[in-house]
TrEMBL record:
The lineage of its organism: Bacteria, Bacillati, Actinomycetota, Actinomycetes, Kitasatosporales. The keyword Oxidoreductase applies. It comes from Streptomyces yaizuensis. It comes from the Bacteria. The keyword Oxidoreductase applies. This is Aldehyde dehydrogenase family protein. Keywords: Oxidoreductase. Belongs to the aldehyde dehydrogenase family. It holds the Pfam family Aldedh.
Length: 479
C-alpha cells in the first residue's frame, strides 16, 4: 500500500509531517500519510509544467496517448479487487458499491476517453473576409489541479483525470485528506502503465494543501468536487487569477412522487437513491414530495424498508449500509436529526447511533421523517447522511415550485405513470440531471453537473473535453 506522494516521478514523504487516515468502520488508523507543504505543492506543479512541454508527453501522438489510457484501464481491471477493498477500508462504502459500481465506472471512464483522444477536432467556418481559410483547433490548457472529495474518491478522481489526460494536460491531484489511499494506488498503476514522469502528480494534505494548489500561478485550471462553501472560495480565488474552474458542489435532490405513481417501485428506488453510500452522495434523493393522499403509505413503507437494512463493515458481504466517513459526519447527522425533532417532524425510524459491535465505528441508523414542512432545515440543508424527509403536497401544480425552492440544483427524480406529467415536470424542475422512474444513473457519455449553488461546468461526455481544452482560431491568407 502506497502512502508517499508522487511528485515528478518520485515517491516522496515530503517534509516528514504526516496525518492519519482511518477505517471508518472501526475508527482505527490504516496508515499515516504525508501532509504536503507549500514547497511540496510547488514541486509538483513545476514537475507537471515541465512534463506538459516535454517530448515524452507534449510530443506524444494521439494514438500513443490513447494506448496509455487503455493500459491504465487494463491495469485497473487487473487490480480491481485490490482497488475496491482499499476504497472500502478507507471510505467505508460496502464492497457491493466499491466493487460493483465505483471501480467499474472508473475503468469505463478511462476507456471512454481513450476513444476520444483521436477524435478531438476543430471546425472550419466560412468568413465574410475574402481569400482567407479559417479553422479552429482544440488545445490542452496546461497544468490542471484536481481536488477530489471523500465520498467516491477513486471514481470522481477519474471523472476528472481521464479527460484531462485524454486532451494532453498534466495534473496535480489533491485527494480528500479522509480518503487518500485509492488515489495513491491509482497513481502507482498509472506509473506502471508507462505514463511519463510528472504527467500525474499526487500531493496529500488538508485545506492548506488545496489552497496552495489553487493559488499556484502555473496552474491553469482547477476542477473541484466538494462542499458549496469551499467551492465558493475556490471560485472566487480562480476568478481573481482568471483561472478556468469547474465546480461540482452540494445538492438536496427532490424526488417527486405523483398520485398515480407505483408506490412500491417508488419506495424501492428512493430507498436506494437516498441511502446509497449511507446517503453520502451529492445527488442523493433526500426530500420526497408525495401526494397527501398517499403520503402515509409511502412514508411508512419507506421507513419499514430503511429500518430493515443491515449496518456493518463494508468488507462484510451481508452489509447493506456502511459507516459514515468520519466522527465529524456522525455528529453533523445527529445534529440535524435533533433539529428535525425540534421543528416538529415525525421520526418514523432510526435517529441514532447503533451500539454493540458497531459502537466503535462511524455508524448512523437510516432515518426517515414524515410530515416534514418546506421550511424545515432537514428539507432545505444538505446533511450528507442517511436522513430522508417526506413532505406531503396538495396541489400538483405546486410541485415544480416546491422542488425548485432550494439553493441547490444538482439533480432531481420524478415518479409517475403519466409520461406527460413526468415530461412536464422534468422541463420545469431546475436541475442539472433529472431521472424519471429510476434511481441515479451515471455513464461516461452523459454530461454531469449542477445549477445554482450546485456548481458550474459539466463533467463526462464531450462536455469534459471542452472543459480541459481551449479553442484557438487559425487564419490563413490564400491571396
Amino acid at each position: 500500500m502506497r502512502t508517499d506522494m508522487l511528485i515528478g516521478g518520485e515517491w516522496t514523504a515530503g517534509s516528514g509531517t504526516t496525518f492519519p487516515t482511518l477505517n471508518p468502520a472501526t475508527g482505527e488508523v490504516i496508515a499515516e500519510v504525508p501532509d504536503a507543504t507549500g514547497a511540496d505543492v510547488d514541486a509538483a506543479v513545476r514537475a507537471a509544467a515541465a512534463a506538459f512541454v516535454s517530448p515524452e508527453w507534449g510530443g506524444l501522438l494521439p494514438a500513443a496517448r490513447a494506448k496509455l489510457l487503455l493500459r491504465v484501464a487494463d491495469l485497473m481491471e487487473e487490480h480491481a479487487e485490490e482497488l475496491a477493498r482499499l476504497e472500502t477500508r478507507d471510505q467505508g462504502q460496502p464492497l457491493g458499491v466499491s466493487a460493483g459500481f465505483s471501480v467499474p465506472n472508473a475503468i469505463e471512464h478511462f476507456r471512454y476517453y481513450a476513444g476520444w483522444v483521436t477524435k478531438i477536432t476543430g471546425v472550419t467556418a466560412p468568413l465574410s473576409v475574402p481569400d482567407v481559410d479559417y479553422r479552429t483547433v482544440r488545445e490542452p490548457l496546461g497544468v490542471c489541479g484536481l481536488i477530489t472529495p471523500w465520498n467516491f474518491p477513486l471514481m470522481i478522481l477519474v471523472w476528472k483525470l481521464a479527460p484531462a489526460l485524454a486532451t494532453g494536460n498534466t495534473v496535480v491531484v489533491k485527494p480528500a485528506e479522509q480518503t487518500p489511499l485509492s488515489t495513491l494506488l491509482l497513481a502507482e498503476l498509472i506509473e506502471r502503465a508507462g505514463v511519463p514522469a510528472g504527467v500525474v502528480n499526487v500531493v496529500t494534505g488538508g485545506p492548506g494543501t488545496g489552497r496552495a494548489l489553487v493559488r499556484h500561478p502555473l496552474v491553469k485550471k482547477i476542477s473541484f468536487t466538494g462542499s458549496t462553501a469551499v467551492g465558493r472560495e475556490i471560485g472566487a480565488e480562480c476568478g481573481r487569477s482568471l483561472k478556468k474552474v469547474s465546480l461540482e458542489l452540494g445538492g438536496k435532490a427532490p424526488s417527486v412522487i405523483t398520485a398515480d405513481a407505483d408506490i412500491d417501485a417508488a419506495v424501492s428506488g428512493n430507498l436506494l437513491g437516498g441511502l446509497l453510500n449511507t446517503g453520502q452522495v451529492c445527488a442523493a434523493y433526500t426530500r420526497f414530495y408525495v401526494d397527501r393522499k398517499r403520503h402515509d403509505e409511502f412514508a411508512e413503507k419507506l421507513a419499514a424498508a430503511a429500518g430493515s437494512l443491515r449496518l456493518g463493515d463494508g468488507l462484510d458481504p451481508g452489509t447493506h449500509l456502511g459507516p459514515l466517513v468520519s466522527a465529524e459526519q456522525v455528529e453533523l447527522t445527529a445534529r440535524y436529526v435533533g433539529i428535525g425533532r425540534e421543528e416538529g417532524a415525525e421520526l418514523l425510524t432510526g435517529g441514532g447511533r447503533p451500539g454493540g459491535d458497531l459502537a466503535h465505528g462511524f455508524f448512523f441508523e437510516p432515518t426517515v421523517f414524515a410530515g416534514v414542512r418546506q421550511d424545515m432545515r432537514i428539507a432545505r440543508e444538505e446533511i450528507f447522511g442517511p436522513v430522508l424527509a417526506v413532505l406531503p403536497y396538495d396541489d400538483p401544480e405546486e410541485l415544480a415550485a416546491l422542488a425548485n425552492d432550494s439553493e441547490y440544483g444538482l439533480a432531481a427524480a420524478i415518479w409517475s405513470r403519466d409520461i406527460g406529467t413526468a415530461g412536464r415536470l422534468a422541463r420545469q424542475i431546475k436541475a442539472g440531471t433529472v431521472w424519471i422512474n429510476m434511481m441515479q444513473g451515471l455513464d461516461a457519455a452523459a454530461a454531469w453537473g449542477g445549477t445554482k449553488s450546485s456548481g458550474i461546468g459539466r463533467e463526462m461526455g464531450w462536455s469534459a473535453i471542452e472543459a480541459y481544452t481551449e479553442v484557438k482560431s487559425v487564419w490563413t491568407s490564400l491571396a
